[in-house]
Amino acid sequence: MKKSQISRVLSLIEESQEDSVRFLQDMIKARSENPPGEYDAIVSVVKPKMENLGIETEIVECAPWRDLDTILSMEEIAPELKEWIEKGDLPTELQTSINLMSEKPNIVGRIRGSSKGRTLIFNAHMDTVPEGKGWSVSPFEGIVKDGKVFGRGACDNKGGIAIVLTAAKAIKEAGVELKGDIILAFTVDEEVGGHTGAAFLMEGGIVRGDACLCTDGPADSIVSSFNGYIPFIVTTTGKTVHGAIPSHGINAISKMMKIQSIFARVEKSLGKEKSKYPSPPDTHEEYTSIVPTTINGGTRFYIVPDRCSSWIDVHVIPDQDPKDIRRMIEEEIRKEQEKDPDLQVDIRVPLMAKPAIVDPSATIVSKMQSAAKQVLGKELPMYRFTGLTDARFFMAAGIPTLTYGPHRVNSGFHAADEWVKIEDLTTISKVYALTALEYLE
């Protein structure tokens, strides 16, 4: 690649900074909170932008009622999920994340190369978490202050869409002839699992590539390894009686406390093994973590509750096997039931996502590090991502996937006053563009 072409691409990205900010503001105003996962507004902003840039663009819809068999056949989905849906026995905790009535419009774009070279995928997701409370600025205006753009989705992950399209715009305007293709995959429903979004595109063979860059990640490091994930939906059942005669009933909340103790003991046992794939220094998550995230039980005071449910997240380091951890937890619960015949427990595991690791020798790794060094003057450290992103679906399809984006530890993603640094929009766009130039030359 000629130095003059590289210089031209970088200059065009710098010149596009104001346009990138305005585009991000437009996306923030186009609400796409999930739930409910409605996308007409955001699609009406992103799709015309892509078409105006001369990018081949199509909408790939996933209609859950039509494509349910495809979704349920995905490797990480529990076989029991189909039975739960057919019998109307879907756990309450899943009902907001499995919307069978709404079509899901993924946007796929392609910038074609001059020959049959490699194909590089750029991925970002269009949905956001709900607004939430505690904002000091309007969450849907895209307010600019202190060198940042504020709003729901600013960094997670509409800022990623702005980054990708700024890079694509510069490559096209510079007239660079790439040997291979760039595919832009802007997906839906990442915040509720991604199965109608990135997973659907991969399962159906709609998107294929040799490497993928996912923008749903940190701004000061590259993610090359990913935790696995097991969600447990646990329900304990008891017997209702008047609260003044508790010995005549079975308290489902008390039984749930026993279950929570089991999970805590298992977490302590798993904590004996530290991951050899480090998380970022500001994260400090070096072990498999078990996190109760919801608990619901009882109807009112003075009544012994007959039901209690809890969602418990298990984030599994790549050094351990999710299947082994599930067996360990279920075996410990069985042992407790042998000691306590009144411990009635229903355990649902709707999915099991495997950990993933990118081979350090993969070409995309060296190309992205080279691009980062040109832009930043240094190589970016490689770390493990402790959460769940769409990257896992590309990895499951055998596509080495690196995650690099505009998240910063205090940037408010999934919290109030979410923001993205304007400088990061420009810098990360440069890294994405140069990675494409080097990978597809």
Topology summary:
Elements: H1 3-15, H2 17-29, H3 40-52, E1 56-62, H4 64-72, H5 80-86, H6 92-95, E2 104-111, E3 119-125, E4 144-145, E5 148-150, H7 158-173, E6 181-187, H8 198-203, E7 211-214, E8 222-226, E9 228-237, H9 252-270, E10 289-297, E11 307-316, H10 322-339, E12 344-348, E13 356-357, H11 363-376, E14 382-385, H12 391-396, E15 401-403, E16 419-421, H13 422-439
Parallel strand pairs: 3-6, 3-7, 7-15, 8-14
Antiparallel strand pairs: 1-2, 2-6, 4-5, 5-16, 8-13, 9-11, 9-12, 10-11
Unreliable runs = none
Overall 3D shape: elongated
Query: What would you say the CATH architecture of the largest domain is?
Result: 3-Layer(aba) Sandwich
**How many helical stretches?**
13
Q: State the name of the first-level CATH class of the largest domain.
A: Alpha Beta
Name the structural class: alpha/beta
Question: How would you name the CATH homologous superfamily of the largest domain?
Answer: Zn peptidases
Question: Percent range for helical residues?
Answer: 25-40%
- Distance between the amino and carboxyl termini: 7 Å
* SS elements, strand count: 16
CATH topology of the largest domain: Aminopeptidase
Cα-atom Rg, whole angstroms? 23 Å
Beta-strand level of the residues, as a percent range?
A: 15-25%
Mean pLDDT: 95
Write down the domain tally.
2
Strand order, sheet with most strands: 1-2-6-3-7-15
Instruction: Describe the main β-sheet briefly.
Output: 6 strands, mixed
Please provide the ordered H/E string of secondary-structure elements: HHHEHHHEEEEHEHEEEHEEHEEHEHEEH
